[in-house]
Amino acid sequence: MTDHAIEDRLPSSLPRPEGELERLQKPWQRPTGWRFLKRVDNTSIGLLYIGTALLFFLLAGILGLMMRTQLAVPDNDLMSASVYNQVFTMHGTVMMFLFAIPIVEAIAVYLLPNMLGARDLPFPRLSAYAYWAYAIGGLAFFCTLFFGLSPDGGWFMYPPLTGKQYSPGLNADFWLLGIGFIEISAIAGAIELIVGILFTRAPGMTLSRMPVYAWAMLVVAVMIVFAFPAIIAGTALLEMERAFDWPFFIGERGGDPILWQHLFWFFGHPEVYIIFLPAAGMVSTMIPTIAGTPLVGRKAIIVALVIVCFFSFALWAHHMFTAGLGVMTMSFVSAASMAVAVPTGIQVFAWIATLWRGKVRMTGPALFLGGFMFIFVLGGLTGVMVALLPFDWQAHDTYFIVAHFHYVLVGGMVFPVFAAMYYWLPLLKGQRLSERVAKWVFWLMFGGFNIAFFPMHITGLLGMPRRVYTYPGEMGWNGLNMVSTVGAFVLAAGVLLFLVDVVRTLRRPEQPVGNPWNASTLEWLPTEAYNARSIPEVRSADPLWDQPNLTEQVEAGQHYLPGTESGQRETLVTSPVAATPRHLLVLPADSWLPFVAAAGTAGFFLLLTVKMHVVAWACGITAIAATVAWLWAADRPPPISHAKVSDTLVLPVGARGRASHSWWATIIMLVVDATVFASFVFAYIHISMRLEVCPPPAASLPALRWPLIAGALLAAGSACMLWAVRSLGTRRLPWLALAATGCTVAGFLVDLHGYQLAGLDPQAQAWSATIGALLSYQGLHAVVLTLAGIYLAARAWSGRLSPSSRATLDNTALLWHYTTLQGIVLSLAVHGVPLLME
Amino acid sequence: MRERFFGKLMRGTLPLLVWAAHFAGSYVLVAAQCSPAGFAPGNPHRLPLALMTLVALAVCAALAWRARRTFGGDERTALLDWAAALTALLAFAGIAWTSVPLWFVDSCA
């Protein structure tokens, strides 16, 4: 057979059976009217997510304009110091936590399934939950501004300023609970993206053919898994200090404010790359299209993304160069901060080379990509400057830093996102934004940005500190501040004009989307609610360029899965490296439960903060009930055992063990869990290392018999669970699950009793408080496992555990063994560190 | 998995893991030595740091040598080969660069 003949042989032949398309359309119909709250499909959730993130961008932008108005002239009394503190804290917090991170995840939720050739993400209800939790929690958090309850300690919330002594109100609590909760939603999104990217790619889309944007999102999702737990642990510690007087960060009681800085920036610096890398991925997708040529150095760019992922974790302490760390440790971090410029530079040079090789059309996206490169490179250069210790000591906490990070973040993320909106907006209704208006928007934004932020370098070098609400007229900063304010309003005018154009464009009648930029990636295939009619067989990194008739073939149903085999929503699961079809995944339908669970969770956290205990617990119970109902209906035997997904390929429906997507999601969740735990262990070690004698005077460790008995009980719990897994289908399974619960809870209580006998008092000093935090985290796991054990027994008794619906059992077992391991590591760490210090 | 997913992942990222281990090891060792209860308060021992650096550089050099054919490769070179080569090169440079302070910083403060 010739190569040509092989290429012409498509997975599904024509003509397609009558009624196949109608059967495919039926399960993907989206509820309309107020029932849209039930929707869980990636297109609906992605668009809501993007819209909400942009709303927060506007709201935080307005706060920025308020700040610039206040600073336009010296000795201004437009805002009091207290209001200004809340405004700058909310500006930073909302921009970082409610705009920047959510929008990169939002764009991925919207774009990735189409780009990968999937029908949807693998956990649509989780996406819906993550979105609603973010939207409801975020809006309620923002509204605290109207009641004077907004946080006011800066977006990085350094203690002791944010401790109970200096921030006695609820303002800091809103930040800690609100942001901690929103971070959990971001982690849920990251798990969804990792599993989606690795397992739902179109057949033939090997890792080397996968779009660079998908690579960027994969890297970013992995970074979220390792970076965000640090801030979750940090916020938990600070909230415990505020609520229970456990003095983790109070120096005179053995605590250390620097501990917060370590935890915050171990999240906070990778976060800069978590924001930038998706933008870089979008740039790597748009530039080849705009230049009309394949990406130069595509493989080098992918490897550079992975290198940045690693290097970015070594940079956290460059935010702490004036905090009193050792010179040698700071020098290591300084060197690493410069080293990260190398992989970033690889990407920038590859983009320039691609533009150089191709023929660039100066369209809306091209303008914003040009602006991105100019601004981002300048921000990168000042980044290398502040990576130098002596320079940073001079510039720290001045407007030079404000200028630097706005160049990095606005250049590295906002401009690419605007380019992306120009580029991908036609996917919505087939209408492009106006090119004439685009020039105005770009020059207003580009000019306004540089007029606003370039002078801040000089203002900073002249000594103006950041976060001051006003300044005396004789400091010599008046003119520069006025220029910055004018620039900020010009920038805002550009954003406003963009919004007007978006509204105008979206009000035009719908027309076929087509491929307006002549792009090479799959999101430009014709799509409906089920995404592409058939899932394409991919043979190159630029499928729409290299497979000339792909669009027509896909639309005619000549590729994989042109209909629905089970009559429900489905997508193909492929292998992680070569994207070989493995099995068919039946996806859940629309439901109220994710919305109700998210509203209940948000209500619980926010109302608990304002001490409305009864309503808060009502919300919490509602959230638990909705989640249990959601899980109860999941993990059912597949409606059919096998499905024919092409003329010759029959795949099993559903999978178990390591082949199951839920097994992988559980493993990733446990990595998050372990990283939170590691952050608590780090806190314990950090506080211990500050001691002259460990344990400190008047504190002691329990006798060794207690952790030994506790460890034996935890191991017995795991053994029961192992036996339970092997007893699937027998009557003893529920009893073994309950026995495992009993052993694990007893193990925890024995451990706790040992510490009680040793007189552990977390309020006494920070060292005991860190042990209290570790025990609390293990206790949380004991509670979760108690619920899981009872749930497992209930499922077994009701006949909902079987060889074809065993994900609940397998995943609970994983959680069980992890908790056992965590308990043992906890004891080893607590008892081992004092031995090392002797 | 049949595709040796984790094996391939390891091959593509091993030099970066070496870099990460070296960075974390150096940071922790210096921080421990400079802590109030540390084993060399006021003046960290640089010899173990230098030895650790030499070992890490040697591993990265060996990995780069193993992937040397990729450096003369063309567009058909597999992504994984690219990753093995480029990460080894950059990890080597990263370790060497991060260790520069060892030459001229000799105290905690």
Can you walk through the features of this model?
- The complex is a heterodimer of chains A (838) and B (109).
- With 838 residues, chain A is mainly α.
- Among the domains of chain A are: 361-512, no CATH class; 594-628, no CATH class; 679-837, Up-down Bundle (Four Helix Bundle (Hemerythrin (Met), subunit A)), CATH 1.20.120.80.
- Helix content of chain A is 65%, strand content 2%.
- Chain A has helices at 3-8, 20-25, 42-71, 81-116, 124-143, 171-199, 212-244, 257-291, 298-311, 327-339, 341-357, 364-387, 389-395, 399-424, 426-429, 435-461, 478-506, 543-546, 550-556, 593-609, 613-633, 661-689, 705-726, 732-757, 766-797, 807-837; strands spanning 570-574, 581-586, 642-644, 650-652.
- In chain A, strand 3 (642-644) and strand 4 form a beta hairpin.
- In chain A, helix 6 (171-199) packs across helix 22 (661-689) and helix 7 packs parallel to helix 9.
- Mean pLDDT of chain A is 94; it is low at 1-6.
- Chain B is mostly helical.
- In chain B, helix 1 packs antiparallel against helix 2 (47-66) and helix 2 (47-66) runs antiparallel to helix 4.
- The model of chain B has no long low-confidence stretch (mean pLDDT 87).
- Chain A binds chain B through residues 207-208, 299-300, 302-304, 306-307, 310-311, 313-314, 326-329, 331-336, 338-339, 342-343, 575-578, 658, 689-694, 837, and chain B through 1-3, 5, 8, 12-13, 16, 19-20, 23, 26-27, 30-32, 34-38, 44, 77-80, 82-83, 86-87, 90, 93-94, 97-102, 105, 107-109.
List the helices and strands and how they pair.
The complex is a heterodimer of chains A (838) and B (109).
Chain A: H1 3-8, H2 20-25, H3 42-71, H4 81-116, H5 124-143, H6 171-199, H7 212-244, H8 257-291, H9 298-311, H10 327-339, H11 341-357, H12 364-387, H13 389-395, H14 399-424, H15 426-429, H16 435-461, H17 478-506, H18 543-546, H19 550-556, E1 570-574, E2 581-586, H20 593-609, H21 613-633, E3 642-644, E4 650-652, H22 661-689, H23 705-726, H24 732-757, H25 766-797, H26 807-837
Antiparallel strand pairs in A: 1-2, 3-4
Helix pairs in contact in A: 3-4, 3-5, 3-17, 4-5, 4-6, 5-6, 5-20, 6-7, 6-20, 6-22, 7-8, 7-9, 7-22, 8-9, 8-11, 8-14, 9-11, 12-14, 12-16, 14-16, 16-17, 20-21, 22-25, 22-26, 23-24, 23-26, 24-25, 25-26
Chain B: H1 5-33, H2 47-66, H3 68-71, H4 79-98, H5 101-104
Helix pairs in contact in B: 1-2, 1-4, 2-4
